[in-house]
Write a structure and sequence with these properties.
The complex is a heterodimer of chains A (464) and B (462). Chain A is α/β, with parallel strands linked by helices. Chain A has a domain of 303 residues: TIM Barrel, CATH 3.20.20.140. Chain A is 27% helix and 20% strand. Chain A has eleven helices and 16 strands. In chain A, the strands form two sheets. In chain A, strands 1, 2, 3, 4, 5, 14, 15 and 16 form an eight-stranded mixed sheet that branches. The N terminus of chain A is likely disordered. By secondary structure, chain B is α/β, with parallel strands linked by helices. In chain B, the strands form two sheets. In chain B, strands 1, 2, 3, 4, 5, 14, 15 and 16 form an eight-stranded mixed sheet that branches. Chain B has an eight-stranded mixed sheet with strand order 6-7-8-9-10-11-12-13. In chain B, strand 15 and strand 16 form a beta hairpin. The chains are: A alpha/beta (464), B alpha/beta (462).
Chain lengths: 464, 462
């Protein structure tokens, strides 16, 4: 969006120059850099026109329909409504009596593919821990599409979209990638069409531990902040050079792929996903964003988000959280089970995330824990509202809420049919559609994706 | 309703609690022995023990009544394998007592003094209904980690239910790495260790002379006495010159060799499980218990035939390593169907602090019943896997894990079905004593429930 604006401004400037007819020194016009050199090749898979009737529907934006109907066709949601909702003749009918329909779960924090199974050193590709400032690395260049974890997230977790991030060893960990949870030969074949990039940042213990132990900066939290600020200063200077070039043309500045990413953040095209546990550190990162003119889209892990829920709401920042993780390191020591509902109650954007190849299979249960703990703390939360923590809010944080994350007519048909109330521990996905294609059906063993890695191994094609 | 129930029990707790007779009435009672839950059941507690539990249990006239209508009542959760109480903060947060990476000792290490009942991992899990836990050390430089305990999570300074209950050994990938780089090396180290123990065992006191216990009790409760008092250290206890173990470590393995102490063996791969069954044939007195067993379903019949029990990770379904290639959540269901005795444990799964997930894991095994092609576990058996089964596997089935008459009164009143993650523990009783459910977490919750509503900073609110 912003790039288009720059390009048209540039066009206008050139026209103006011609109109004067003055023999100005000739500058070659600016050449636009390809911002999408590894483009998505994902194509939706074929799907039958399908209608699910008599199900309880959580629409992902807080709505609930009893005896609901949903119609999927041509990859999108055609209609959502009550029992009288019409469906095209010949549609494949699914009886949803006693079952639940929800938007597919979106995990805003995953390392599937870059820390895949098996967790052997050869496949450990999540942290470029060779320097604390590594915005030049892109998670998609590490993602192994054959990670068996993708299929578990689909079949057991009902996860249809996920953001894969670099790890948190670095202050600037690199670019994230948002993918559809579809098996593919290449990562490009999974990339969510039109999803913006994210930048993984980290504060706190991890960077200072990783580099402090090597006697490199940062060794302290103040070192974390100093190095991060210094890097943003460089990025601002880099952006000024490019802004000028796009305005005036001339010699193209030297490209730096690390600074390209940071310039993308400063231009508002790349969303900041900031690993940060402690409340006081999140507040510092908010000030830093204001200092350099960018926005933090979401704090990830945010174990102390409940202490600054008001600040998160006022700054329109999402918090992606676990339901009950705590204490495994010092900055997680103050974790409480009401973190998610307290953030939600403050009016901030609350997200349930996994950061874990097992947890991603039970995000609905994590939301159920948070819902129950919130209710016990006296907060009135409905199940249909709590589902926004699992699909619509993460879609917002990924910049794709106009495309998926809720059951609205015209949106991508990323839908799960659960065999029971998904806030029950006894519920499992019965069917999962991605862009209207049925990619999992518990009753059909042929619809269990098996990665190349698992082919020919004990347990190939088993229930998992 | 909830508040009044708790208030009632708090009143009861003002009387010397263990002596008080308490009747918990009207709740859905699950005994923990594998049976189905009983609607409108009664649980009677006196002197720290269960007097009776079930549908038609008479209520003693003087009993303090706890109204549990609408609630569920079960034995406390027994975590089948954990490192709870051994570490306050796992990563870069000071000393963790689970692993002695540079210790000269291994099998001789006794985990008991490392368990801190004041550590935050104890109250947080207690508040979620975990009343007992198997606590194991981690390995340092040897395949033998040392001796683990059964503990309780009560709010007192006596956490140890049974010290030196088992020896813990790594014989899979981790063991292979520790043993110098291969599984075969780990096995020869293991056999050598038993050889050294065998040599020392000539100087060990016989079972008959080991104390006042009758032989039957010793057989049922094969717990080693304090090895620091063992005659195996005496001046007359001779050893060969080609030894690898310290005298303490070799002496600590004597009870393992004699079957007086359980041997918990961590392996995941099917082949490794069969190797352990072979060891049992080689050393018939061994009492091995397999921990982990991700691929157990591939050799479930052999496990059942050998009567070797398993403390399994419940939901491993990823080929996380080359010893877990066949991982599936149906593992436990399939082993159980084959007749293997199975409990749920937490090995390598946030085992210092997330014991409260045991009931979620059990619930997920129930969920598998409705997944076509999967092997689930009935509700009653799933509860047993986190209550009585770990107790039975470690010879403590007559003490803890069910609500049968005479068992220690470890009882939890839940807001609902405890295998639902939405349910919570409302009353927790350990050894007949009602437990506080307040934690750092609940205090932080209360402090930050309403931000900015008080005149002074949060630091003044508690």
């Amino acid at each position: 969006m912003r790039w288009n604006a720059i390009a048209s401004a540039l066009g206008a400037a050139l026209l103006g120059a011609c109109a004067t007819l003055a023999p100005a020194p000739k500058k070659s016009p600016a050449v636009r850099i390809n911002l999408d050199p590894y483009p998505s090749t994902y194509q939706r898979h074929p799907g039958a026109v399908t209608v699910v009737r008599h199900a309880t529907i959580f629409d992902g934006e807080g709505g609930r329909i009893e005896d609901g109907t949903i119609v999927l066709a041509n990859g999108v949601i055609q209609a959502v409504g009550g029992p009288g909702t019409p469906a095209p003749a010949g549609a494949y009918e699914v009886d949803g009596t006693g079952k639940f329909v929800t938007p597919g779960i979106i995990d805003v924090h995953s390392h599937l593919g870059d820390y895949p199974s098996p967790g052997v050193p050869s496949l450990s590709d999540g942290n470029e821990a060779t320097g604390p400032v590594r915005p030049e690395v892109w998670a998609e260049h590490s993602v192994w599409p054959q990670d068996p974890g993708f299929s578990r997230a689909l079949m057991n977790g009902g996860v249809t979209t996920l953001q894969i991030l670099p790890g948190s060893a670095n202050l600037f960990g690199g670019r994230s990638v948002t993918v559809k949870n579809v098996p593919a030969r290449t990562v490009q074949g999974m990339k969510f069409p039109g999803a913006p990039y994210g930048l993984k940042m980290a504060c706190g213990e991890n960077p200072k531990r990783v580099y402090g132990s090597k006697s490199n900066m940062p060794q302290t939290r103040m070192g974390n902040i100093a190095l991060t600020r210094a890097t943003w200063l460089k990025a601002q200077a880099y952006k000024r050079k490019w802004d000028k070039y796009y305005r005036n043309g001339g010699d193209m500045p030297e490209r730096d792929i690390a600074m390209d990413t940071l310039m993308g953040v400063l231009s508002g095209q790349i969303l900041v996903h900031n690993h940060c546990y402690r409340a006081d550190e999140m507040a510092i990162m908010i000030d830093m964003a204001n200092e350099f003119g960018y926005k933090v889209t979401a704090f990830h892990h945010a174990v102390e988000a409940y202490k600054i829920a008001d600040l998160l709401a006022a700054n329109n920042i999402c918090a992606a959280m676990w339901a009950d993780w705590w204490g495994f390191k010092m900055e997680a020591y103050d974790g409480i089970k009401e973190n998610i509902p307290f953030v939600d109650k403050a009016g901030a954007c609350a997200i349930v995330h996994s950061d874990d190849a097992n947890g991603i299979q039970r995000l609905n249960q994590e939301a159920a824990k948070a819902l129950a703990d919130g209710r016990r703390a006296g907060i009135d939360i409905s199940e249909e509202h709590a589902w926004s923590w699992l699909s619509y809010n993460p879609a917002k944080a990924l910049g794709i809420a106009d495309k998926t994350g809720s059951l609205r007519t015209g949106k991508m048909a990323d839908v799960v049919l659960w065999n029971a109330d998904p806030f029950s521990t006894y519920a499992r996905p019965e069917r999962v559609w991605i862009d209207g294609a049925l990619l999992y059906y518990s009753d059909n063993p042929r619809l269990r994706p098996v990665s190349d890695f698992e082919l020919g191994q004990p347990g190939e094609g088993d229930v998992k | 309703m909830i508040r009044s129930v708790i208030a009632l029990l708090l009143l009861a707790a003002t009387v010397p609690a263990p002596a008080q007779t308490i009747a918990i009435t009207g709740g859905t009672v699950a005994l923990g022995d594998g049976s189905d839950p009983i609607p409108n059941g009664t649980v009677v507690i006196r002197n720290g023990r269960i007097v009776g539990a079930g549908p038609n249990v008479p209520i003693p006239p003087a009993a303090q009544i706890v109204d549990a209508r609408g609630k569920w009542v079960t034995p406390g959760i027994v975590a089948g394998f954990s490192r709870v109480g051994l570490s306050e903060v796992d990563l870069s947060g000071g000393l963790s007592d689970d692993r002695a990476a540079n210790s000269p000792f291994s099998a001789a290490i006794d985990i008991a003094p490392g368990v801190d009942p004041n550590g935050s991992t104890i109250p947080v899990n207690r508040a979620d209904g975990v009343t007992r836990a198997v606590v194991a050390p981690n390995t340092g430089k040897s395949i033998f980690a040392g001796q683990g305990a059964m503990i309780d999570l009560g709010a007192d300074m006596n956490p140890i239910t049974r010290a030196r209950l088992f020896q813990f050994v790594e014989l899979g990938e981790s063991g292979g790495n520790t043993a110098g780089g291969s599984r075969p090396s780990a096995y020869i180290l293991f056999r050598n260790a038993l050889r050294e123990a065998s040599e020392l065992s000539r100087y060990a006191p016989s079972i008959a002379s080991s104390g006042s216990r009758t032989p039957d009790v010793v057989r049922d409760q094969p717990i080693v006495r304090n090895p620091n008092e063992s005659r195996e250290y005496g001046p007359n206890a001779q050893r060969s010159e080609d030894v690898l173990l310290t005298r303490f470590d070799a002496a600590a393995l004597v009870p393992v060799l004699r079957g007086r102490q359980y041997l918990l063996v961590h392996v995941e791969r099917a082949r490794d499980i069969l190797n352990i069954l072979q060891l049992k044939r080689e050393y018939p007195a061994l009492k091995p218990v397999i921990v982990g067993a991700t691929e157990g379903w591939l050799v479930a019949d052999q496990l059942a035939a050998a009567r070797v029990p398993v403390i399994a990770s419940a939901l491993n379904d990823l080929p996380a390593s080359f010893e877990q290639i066949a991982a599936t959540q149906s593992n436990i269901g399939r082993m159980r169907a084959a007749g293997v005795q199975v409990a749920i444990g937490m090995i390598d799964d946030n085992d210092t602090r997330f014991l409260f997930n045991e009931r979620q894991y059990a619930g997920n095994l129930v969920a598998l019943i409705d997944v076509p092609g999967a092997s689930g576990v009935r509700w009653g058996e799933a509860l047993a896997m986190i209550t009585s089964r770990p107790a039975q596997i470690l010879g403590l089935g007559n003490e803890i894990g069910t609500l049968a008459k005479g068992r220690r009164a470890d009882v939890v009143v839940w807001s609902g079905d405890p295998l639902q993650v939405t349910s919570s523990a409302e009353i927790v009783v350990i050894d007949g004593v009602q437990q506080p459910l307040e934690t750092r977490q609940t205090k932080l919750r209360d402090r930050y429930r309403d931000i900015g509503e008080s005149a002074l900073p949060e630091a003044y609110q508690r």
